[in-house]
Design brief:
single chain, alpha/beta, Rossmann fold, six-stranded mixed sheet, 7 helices, globular, binds adenosine-5'-diphosphate, binds magnesium ion
Length: about 240
């Protein structure tokens, strides 16, 4: 059978994330690393997507390309109506600020700011005044169960609490998509379970689409879509829910 280069499935009209033929080659001097080798992906709005796979399989690279932190070597990426592969740096910055929330393994909170001020940073970056932003930050802290800790700095909070603050920060500006890279990688298993449940609950409440790269197979149990990566390719897909 002849397979044409255009044999990838057509766009699903309702996909929030649409990726075709995505390649990423990192070049450092003589050394080339093919981190992504032709990824196709369609994700509907509101999904809770989990990416698993061995270290070095390309998960972080894919997340970075999906939010325009880095540019693909080839291929198409459309997220929430915005084409990323040819977008200007200014468009990408605006896209990240207005449409994307991030959750990191090590929380990435600002140590000198209290929990509330950390949470409202994305709103201040959009130009909202502190007085307008603060009540929205307080409401987010309440949703993650930390309303009583709003004046506490990251150093006064446990790892799980810091990740809850980071989750509140990721969602406060009502992004279309939340990207999380190893969000439970620094947490014990009980705390990890609570953080997973919280993310899934906020995914359902907010309608934001979540995409998580993880080694934690428990997250797969609450996923709507589970992709396994290997060597720069998506090699398996399941839809647990
Ligand atoms: N900035 C970079 N420069 C060169 N190689 C990189 C860079 N970032 C990642 N890589 C390589 O790309 C491959 C995929 O890495 P990554 O996306 O971080 O995988 P994962 O998140 O699944 O562990 C690995 O071989 C890694 O060494
Ligand atoms: Mg990684």
């Amino acid at each position: 059978m002849h397979i044409s280069p255009n044999s990838a499935p057509e766009t699903q009209p309702d996909s929030l994330i649409h990726v075709r033929g995505l390649w990423k080659t990192y070049r450092r001097g003589q050394v080339q690393v093919e981190a992504l080798r032709g990824v196709d992906l369609d994700i509907p709005p509101g999904a809770f997507v989990v990416l698993t796979g061995p270290s070095g399989s390309g998960k972080t690279t894919l997340l970075h390309l999906l939010c325009g932190i880095d540019h693909p070597t080839a291929g198409q990426i459309r997220v929430d109506g915005q084409s990323l592969e040819h977008a200007s740096e200014a468009d990408l910055t605006r896209f990240r600020r207005d449409r994307v929330g991030f959750i990191f393994q090590f929380y990435n909170l600002i140590p000198a700011l209290n929990a509330l001020d950390n949470v409202i940073l994305p709103l201040l970056a959009k130009g909202l005044a502190w007085k307008k932003a603060a009540p929205r930050g307080q409401a987010m802290l309440e949703l993650v169960g930390l309303q009583a800790r709003q004046r506490h700095k990251p150093g006064e909070l446990s790892g799980g609490e810091q990740q809850r603050v980071a989750i509140a920060r990721a969602l406060v500006a009502q992004p279309a998509i939340v990207l999380a890279d190893e969000p439970t990688g620094d947490l014990d298993s009980t705390t990890a379970r609570e953080v997973i449940q919280l993310m899934r609950q906020l995914n359902q409440q907010s309608g934001a689409t979540f995409l998580l790269a993880t080694h934690n197979l428990e997250i797969c149990q609450v996923a709507t879509h589970h992709y396994e990566m290997s060597d720069g390719l998506l090699i398996a897909k399941s839809t647990p829910r």
